[in-house]
Design a protein that fits this description.
With 284 residues, this protein is α/β, with parallel strands linked by helices. It contains 12 helices and 8 strands.
């Protein structure tokens, strides 16, 4: 399979932006409109949030959304913007490594140039409660990442595979355990490592120095600013579902105010109708 020339160039450009000390900053989007807003704000690329995307489609986060619906939404985001798009595909929307390979082929067909693949287990997963703890066994996750790498290579696409490690988010381990998993996942074919759930400078610095690849952290209120994370050696900063959560909080505040007090102050500061309409009209 020969990938689209533009897609191939976008993938290379996206890959080149993962520079320790000069991080790629990704305000995560969940639909075509949020993606256009993020692009218009000056983002060099758009990253999806699997949680925000699932919520927009009426599903809960946590491997409950099927591959076709998820990647259909990713394709619409790709069509809405000109910058590269990287897709959060949860644990690969598949039970086994062969299925992960199928998902990667579908991701490339949708036009995305990168993926996040996480190592957490959820209730819907066959291994949940099997005694393996909240994370997949290292060997199994490495096999899934290797399948992703192989599928991308066979398609001729320089897809950026970001291996998410949920040691801190799940409380399943600290720095040493995270570094062990990171080394195994990079050896299996991952290009970068995403460690959500940790932003304290000492730990971030230890991870950046100990991981032989670009480190992605998830920031939010209370986290060090991007410049400080850059100085610690971070190569990518994203915010996960944070922007989607903030947007949905506005919906709830406005609805409760309207139905309660009967007033409209929560609508203050909204985007101008004409501006938003023009933004969507000037898309890709």
């Amino acid at each position: 399979m020969t990938p689209n020339h533009t897609l191939h160039n976008q993938a290379l450009a996206f890959r080149s932006r993962h520079v320790p000390g000069h991080p790629l900053v990704l305000p995560n989007a969940w639909d075509a409109t949020s993606a256009r807003i993020v692009e218009d704000a000056g983002a060099a690329a758009v990253a999806t949030t699997s949680a925000g995307l699932a919520w927009a489609l009426g599903a809960a986060d946590g491997d409950r959304l099927g591959r076709d619906r998820a990647l259909g939404a990713v394709a619409r985001i790709v069509d809405a913007v000109r910058v590269p798009v990287t897709a959060d595909i949860e644990s690969g929307y598949a039970r086994d490594s062969a299925g992960v390979g199928d998902t990667i082929r579908a991701v490339i067909a949708a036009g995305a140039v990168g993926v996040n693949i996480e190592d957490a287990l959820y209730e819907g997963d066959a291994l949940y409660g099997s005694g393996e703890g909240p994370l997949r066994p290292v060997a199994e996750q490495a096999e899934r990442l290797a399948a992703a790498r192989q599928a991308a290579d066979e398609a001729g696409a320089p897809l950026f595979v970001n291996a998410r490690i949920d040691t801190f988010l799940s409380g399943a381990g600290g720095v040493d355990h995270t570094l062990e998993r990171a080394a195994a996942f990079l050896a299996a074919g991952a290009d970068g490592v995403f460690v959500p759930g940790v932003v304290d400078p000492v730990t971030v610095k230890a991870l950046a120095e100990g991981i032989d690849g670009p480190l992605n952290v998830m920031a939010g209120p209370g986290a060090p600013p991007v410049a400080e994370l850059a100085a610690l050696g971070v190569a990518r900063v994203s915010v996960g579902s944070g922007i989607a959560q903030a947007a949905h909080a506005v919906v709830r505040r406005a609805a409760r105010e309207l139905l309660g007090a009967g007033t409209y102050e929560s609508l203050t500061g909204g985007l101008d109708y004409g501006e938003l309409n023009a933004l969507l009209g000037s898309g890709r």
